[in-house]
Automatic annotation (TrEMBL):
Residues 387-397 have a biased composition (Basic and acidic residues). Keywords: Oxidoreductase. Residues 3-119 form the Gfo/Idh/MocA-like oxidoreductase N-terminal domain. SUPFAM superfamilies: Glyceraldehyde-3-phosphate dehydrogenase-like, C-terminal domain, NAD(P)-binding Rossmann-fold domains. It comes from Kitasatospora sp. CMC57. It comes from the Bacteria. Pfam families: GFO_IDH_MocA. This is Gfo/Idh/MocA family oxidoreductase. Gene3D superfamilies: Dihydrodipicolinate Reductase, domain 2, NAD(P)-binding Rossmann-like Domain. GO terms for molecular function: nucleotide binding; oxidoreductase activity. Residues 378-397 are annotated as: Disordered.
Amino acid sequence: MFSLGIVGAGQFAGSFAKLWHLHPDVGDIRVTDLIPERAERLVADHQLTGTMASFEDMLDSDLDAVALFTQRWTHGPLAVRALRAGKDVYSAVPMAVTEAEIADIITAVEETGRIYMMGETSYYHPATVYAREQIACGAFGRMFYAEGDYVHDMDWGFYDAYRYSGGENWKSTASYPPLLYATHSIGGVLGAWQTHAVSVSAIGVPDQRGDGVFDREISRFDNDFSNATALFEVAGGGSFRTNEFRRVGYIGKESRFRFFGTEAVFEQLGSVSLWQDKKGEHDLTEHLHPTPTLSPDDPALAHVAPELRGAFASGTAPVHDRSRLPREFEHAPNGHEGSHHFLADDFAVAVTTRTPPALHAWTAARYTLPGIIAHQSARQGGARLPVPDHGDGPGTA
């Protein structure tokens, strides 16, 4: 068993604290937060081991691993410090917000031999799981195009989330550039299509709401884009398009994917999923639909903003292989299209077996770097820019 420190006791941390508390490979779990009361509440809610005063105290302790659930632009530097302190690291998305931070994480993993994992939920999105299986067996023929959307209006829970995490200056951080949070859309595509982006051209849409969010004079990121679209070229030929929308008249499925091959097409949209080939059309909606395990009003979701509770209430879909999960997860809360159980287990197994998880540092870089370069492209009026690549990572030629 290994011991774990949770860094950041916000709305997202509770879902994973619960699962790691149940996991047979995880022992003591301690929590720290810049607001001590939040750490104390998380410990009490999930019967964890206790709190610690600071992140620095965790690094100086005998904890084996840390899980980062802090503000999204802080992940890169915190991950490097933890790796250098001899801790295995689980990080919420994104991996980092600059090219240099990503390179530093990869170097730290190489030099320390520690485990690093980015918890990208779209890797276990039912559509991604299904497309990954069909691509692996060649059912698409040659893949040449895909689409991934992360469509989440600010009014649908994000205002409250930013107020909760950002304090009195929350508007300065609510302007976070959409393309710096593109791992859900990019990861869902690349998590199925085993390739990587080599160039990108992107267009950003300046916001017009006028409420001080996405205002470059207020934004700590000098950002006024609330919506953005990026077109990526991939290695081996082909392309994929992603949308990151924060002002949109849509409150359905956040992440949606389409995959196009020479022999078949798969489309997972808001309320229907279809497989189409030269023989006809097949409705896959039920096969890819996660069965809710909790009511949005369940007390287990009290820490989550009401508009966001649906994302934390889902179970798994028939396409998911639950046979690999610990039995302790059988009736546990899940979330984000059934991904939480698999992500929590992936990290526990990786730390226990000392085997890099599927979402290791090199994969995380391939899901994160394209968005960083896409934002640069959008700031340059859509200029086509090369996307750096750090390679496949461990166990590859």
